[in-house]
Each structure stands twice: as structure tokens, then as C-alpha cells.
From TrEMBL:
Belongs to the enoyl-CoA hydratase/isomerase family. This is Crotonase. It comes from the Bacteria. GO terms for molecular function: hydro-lyase activity. Pfam families: ECH_1. GO terms for biological process: fatty acid beta-oxidation. Keywords: Lyase. It comes from Verticiella sediminum.
């Protein structure tokens, strides 16, 4: 396994931990961060059958990710056509994380701003340290959130609240993010990883095929009409109705023992 410059990767039991590792730059999405993230998710976590859940967090206590590295970007202005193509690559990376077949939990250990919040929005769930602050401040820099923020934030908190947050470049505390449904839980910073890992282990203990198809059904259902969503739900259920995991789950229930799921 090669060494990545801006991301660390570890596996504890059935949980992969991917850590954004540029604490001196607030874990901004500069340098080789994006290809490093792609490697960690799509080459390592995807290929490891032991991994059933992924935790995404940041190094240090100040930032999960402060978004784009403004110092890197301020020196140049790309032509619109070049920006359009480059941003497509970012969309593809973030959409790949959002649709990753194994559940992803973001542990927000500090600020999640701009592209950092957009990255966190790609996770299935978000736990936040009590000192974390969240926001999409791009408008005050003369641009807009363009790594999925205008779309994913809206789907989480609704159009009116998303517009308020984006138009004002507001930074909100974790507690307000909890009230909005932007984060699932707020915990003391000292226990963030402990609480996040407990959730990850609980998910990893479930039958992986059922979790995978449930995730796909929920995600797709948000994009289509209710009748199409229900059809996909039926399809998903039919795909795993004769799985070995379903048979094992039923046997374990009848025999009153812990199931041993294999992902088959």
C-alpha cells in the first residue's frame, strides 16, 4: 500500500478510517488531496472485503476541512471552460463518495466550510464535535458553492434554509446544524471518534448486502417520483431475498444466537 501525502488510511476491525491530513492548512482540499481521497475510497476501502463501513474525519482539532485552499487558488484564474472541466472531476469524486456502496460517516472534528461541508454532505451520516462550525461561505468570495453544495445542502435542509445559509455565507454552530438535520449528533470533542466508531461498528455488524441495497434504495428514492422509488425498493428486496445472509439471519433468529453474516 503506497503512502499518500494528504490522507491517512487505517482499518480497525471492519471499519476503515480515512483522515484528511493537512492540519497545518486546515485540511483544505489542495495538494494531492482529491486523488488521495479517490485512492483511499475507490482502491483501498472498496477492494477490502473486510471493510463494511467508512469513517471520514480530519487531523487535528481545528478543522474537518476548510474547503478549497484559497492561497493556492488566489494566484490564478482559470478560463471558464477549463474550470467547468476541472469541476466535473470534483463532482465525479464527490458523487462517487456519496454513492459509495459501503456506508460513510463523517466525523466533523472542527470547521467544515465550503468544499469541506460539501464533502461532509456526501457522507450518509454526520457526527460533529460540539465546537464545530459549518457553512458555505463561497458567495462572499464572489463565487458559489460548486462541489455539490447548492444541491446536496438543499436536499438535507430544504430550499429556503439552504438559500439563507448560502446567500449570507453564514457559519452555524454544530448545535444549529443538529436542529436543521444537517448533523445526526453533536458530542464533546474528546468523545467524537469513540461515538462515531461505535456507530460504525454497529452498522458493520449488520448484513452488508442488506445495508448496501437499503442505502441505494434510500438515495435513489430522493431523486425520483414515489412510484419509481417503490419499484426500486421492490427490486432491491428481490435481489437479496435468497441471499445467504438472509438465510443466516433467519436461522440465527430462530436459534436465538448471534448471526454470522458473510456478505453473500
Amino acid at each position: 500500500m503506497k503512502k499518500l501525502d494528504t490522507v491517512t488510511y487505517a482499518v480497525e476491525g471492519q471499519v476503515a478510517i480515512i483522515t484528511l491530513n493537512r492540519p497545518e492548512r486546515m485540511n483544505t482540499l489542495g495538494g494531492s488531496m482529491k486523488p488521495d481521497l479517490a485512492c483511499a475510497f475507490f482502491e483501498w476501502a472498496r477492494a477490502d472485503p473486510q471493510v463494511r463501513c467508512v469513517v471520514l474525519t480530519g487531523a487535528g482539532e481545528r478543522a474537518f476541512c476548510a474547503g478549497a485552499d484559497i492561497k493556492e487558488r488566489a494566484a490564478s484564474t482559470p478560463p471558464p471552460a477549463d474550470y467547468f472541466v476541472n469541476q466535473q472531476r470534483t463532482h465525479e469524486l464527490f458523487s462517487g463518495i456519496a454513492s459509495f456502496e459501503k456506508p460513510v460517516i463523517a466525523a466533523l472534528n472542527g470547521v467544515a466550510l465550503g468544499g469541506g461541508l460539501e464533502l461532509a454532505l456526501c457522507a450518509d451520516m454526520r457526527y460533529a464535535a460540539d465546537h464545530a462550525r459549518l457553512g458555505l461561505p463561497e458567495v462572499k468570495l464572489g463565487v458559489i458553492p460548486a462541489a455539490g453544495g447548492t444541491q446536496r445542502l438543499t436536499r438535507v435542509v430544504g430550499a429556503a434554509k439552504a438559500k439563507e445559509l448560502v446567500f449570507t455565507s453564514a457559519l452555524i454552530p454544530a448545535a444549529e446544524g443538529l436542529a436543521l438535520g444537517l448533523v445526526n449528533r453533536v458530542v464533546p470533542a474528546a468523545s467524537l471518534m469513540e461515538e462515531t466508531m461505535a456507530l460504525a461498528r454497529s452498522i458493520a455488524a449488520q448484513p452488508p448486502l442488506a445495508v448496501r441495497f437499503a442505502k441505494q434504495a434510500i438515495d435513489l428514492g430522493q431523486q425520483v417520483d414515489i412510484h419509481s422509488a417503490l419499484q426500486y425498493e421492490r427490486f432491491s428486496a428481490a435481489m437479496i431475498v435468497d441471499s445467504e445472509d438472509r438465510k443466516e439471519g433467519m436461522r440465527a433468529f430462530v436459534e436465538k444466537r448471534a448471526p454470522r453474516f458473510q456478505g453473500r
